[in-house]
Design brief:
homodimer, alpha/beta, Arc Repressor Mutant, subunit A, Nucleotidyltransferase, domain 5, 3 domains, 13 helices, about 40% helix, DNA-binding, WH-like_DNA-bd_sf (chains A, B), transferase (chains A, B)
DNA sequence: ATACTTTTGTAAATAACTTATCATAAGTGG
DNA sequence: CCACTTATGATAAGTTATTTACAAAAGTAT
């Protein structure tokens, strides 16, 4: 059992729920005898362990198998605009250790990258490290060329496009590295951890900016050049249009994103610089802030309605800082979705707030790294 | 070689381009020796045949293998609002025989279904039938519950939801049957036949109604309940809103679809009842028609821009009757897409008209049936 | 408790696949 | 023509998986 990541049974259990031997057989396409033998081998090697038994259907109940969460660790990194979170996980995604780094995306990328790598190294070898690290995932606030493992250009991360991020980190840290866009990874974590049965899933992140992740048939949808889910600059905002930070007019971000709400609140004399402070004002009950959030939710709702019409997901989940407004944010979205979409698309659609919290990014990064354990790189 | 559909090599070649032995090995994960043996066995059985040789890269050129197009036939059915097309294909999708049926979707579904089945049976056993029929695919103008193999309710096909279409046809015709939405299947055919290298693909059908099909990573995106691609009732049309046939206001269909253009042209005194007649007027150069088509193309362009922003396809293709307007239809779409989407999403995006013609529906149906040959039903 | 169902374990014979090696075929570039 | 490269074919030995058959375990229904 040199590299368990190559074993199809182990891989199946890595990225999915616990399964019975019978399910494993059908999924990996092995006969009952062979599957049973290999399950036993994996169990003897300590890579997998017994899970709960399933309910009996008139016969002996099937027992399930799951990965041994303590066999390896994972590292997730979530790079934000001013801060990066670096988390050491067990394979079962328990948080073992964590560090927050202040970073500046406009500073020298190589230096920032080295700071992240050094931090990951500290966690990997620190007191809380219970096992070798099997892989590292990074969530970045930029479009990602997923196959190349680097930031797609042009992006907001000036200078980062030049770096072969995956290769650099892999040689620096001696472990497999996987990259993806932060919203994609938040979507992945929310779906895998909180909506495991939902195979058609849309996650809208409403924070400083607005973006979305989409899962169809259980697979993250990445698009041809890594820009899928870039819904912040869709142009359907109400008149009068306002200037967006992308230079165009009419983008929904310019009316509904955290930065735009902060801008408007500042113009009204509030001390409010970013999405987080918008939510603070909101919680304190500032009426002008509530009005803005309500308007924002309806604008986001128009795009949500488009997403539902196009993709026909089974669940639509709102995350990001602004989703802290809870039902208020959902109300506008529900209003627009139910108003604008056909009943067939909405009657079985679930709409809700993200159940995951501020760790969704690192969790998604770790899930990605876990899914790629042992994959050819 | 009882059922060749179970052979992974045969299946690979069924739904893909000709491949060299080397490519086949890697795709199906067999060693060179075994793959070679099985390729030879398939060739001896007449299921596959040699294709062209690839260009040499300094050594002996690799020869490719492709399916034997004459080993089996396929039937595709494209059900429209007033007409159904039933086509007998070879496995290589050459047209062997064809029939057009007048139908009425509002009539008794069982009777219509029987007419289709009888027609399929005639073609399957007729003079032009060169081989046994391996499967039948049907394109229907309704949302399809793909896993159940029936029309999802509620739909425009009143009464059809009650029928277990797949089971009925399978037992009636004694062959595997696959169903899908017509736009999905047009999308599939256009991509597989005319854009085989493009794995992220969006197809907009602008005819009597407006809908789209989406392919990501080479897979048709069907959504949770079969309504994906239902973009006709997205609400972004310009003021003043007009009443849509769905009962809402502001749907793009009510401004940009064939039925809406016909309605407007009629109101202006033209004799114009459907999308086809709109195109006839257009070709004759009627100025009021040209103006309407231009406006329509820009409205479709707004939705196209949303699709591009969300899905980041590598190609966006316009089909359906209205795409007969050619560059005029493309112009408005290009205008909106380039105006509204970020450069990263558009700089490598191809926008064009469908290369396939009026047989796209039946071709897609046949491709679907072919892909499912031997699959568990 | 008894009959029934479904899951799991084991062993032996058979079938399939892989690895390794050698030989041959059919191109390219000089 | 010759050296070099890549593709293909054939064979043997060794490994792994499948099939078949029997038995036991652990539940449910009556």
């Amino acid at each position: 059992m040199e590299n368990p990541g190559h074993d199809p049974i182990y891989r199946l259990l890595l990225d999915g729920p616990p399964r019975s031997a019978r399910e494993i057989e059908t999924h990996v396409g092995l006969s009952r005898v062979t599957a049973g033998q290999r399950i036993k081998a994996l169990a003897r090697a300590g890579l997998i362990a017994e899970g709960d038994s399933l309910a009996s259907g008139g016969g002996r109940p099937a027992r399930t198998w799951r990965i041994n969460p303590h066999h390896r660790n994972l590292i997730g990194i979530d790079v934000g605009e001013q801060m990066a979170r670096v988390t050491l996980f067990s394979l079962g995604l328990d948080v073992l250790d964590e560090a927050l780094l202040e970073i500046d995306l406009r500073a020298d990328p190589a230096r920032t990258l080295e700071a992240l790598a050094a931090c990951a190294e500290r966690l990997a070898t620190g007191d809380r490290a219970s096992a070798p690290v099997a892989g590292l995932g990074i969530a970045l606030p930029a479009p990602i060329d997923y196959r190349q493992g680097r930031v797609a250009k042009p992006s907001v991360m000036y200078g980062w496009e030049e770096l072969d991020l995956r290769a650099l980190l892999r040689s620096r840290l001696k472990m497999p590295v996987a990259l993806d866009n932060d919203v994609n990874l938040m979507c992945l974590a929310e779906q895998r951890l909180h909506w495991p049965e939902t195979r058609h899933f849309v996650f809208i992140k409403a924070g400083t900016g607005i973006g979305c992740g989409m899962i169809t048939d259980g697979q993250l949808l990445r698009g041809a050049f890594g820009t899928s889910g870039d819904i912040g600059h869709i142009q359907h905002s109400p008149e009068p249009h306002r200037l967006c930070r992308c230079g165009k007019q009419g983008c929904i971000e310019a009316h509904a994103a955290g930065w735009a709400l902060a801008r408007d609140l500042q113009a009204q004399g509030n001390d409010c610089r970013d999405a987080r402070e918008v939510m603070q004002l909101y919680v304190r009950g500032a009426p002008e802030c509530r009005a803005l959030v309500n308007a924002s939710s309806r604008i986001i709702g128009t795009v949500a309605a488009d997403l539902v019409a196009m993709l026909n997901p089974a669940a639509l989940v709102i995350g990001g800082t602004l989703s802290g407004a809870g039902e208020a944010m959902l109300a506008g979205i529900r209003e627009r979705v139910y108003q604008r979409c056909l009943p067939l698309a909405t009657e079985r659609l679930q709409i809700g707030s993200a159940r995951g919290g501020e760790r969704l990014g690192v969790q998604g990064a770790a899930i990605l790294a876990r899914a790629q354990m042992g994959a050819p790189s």
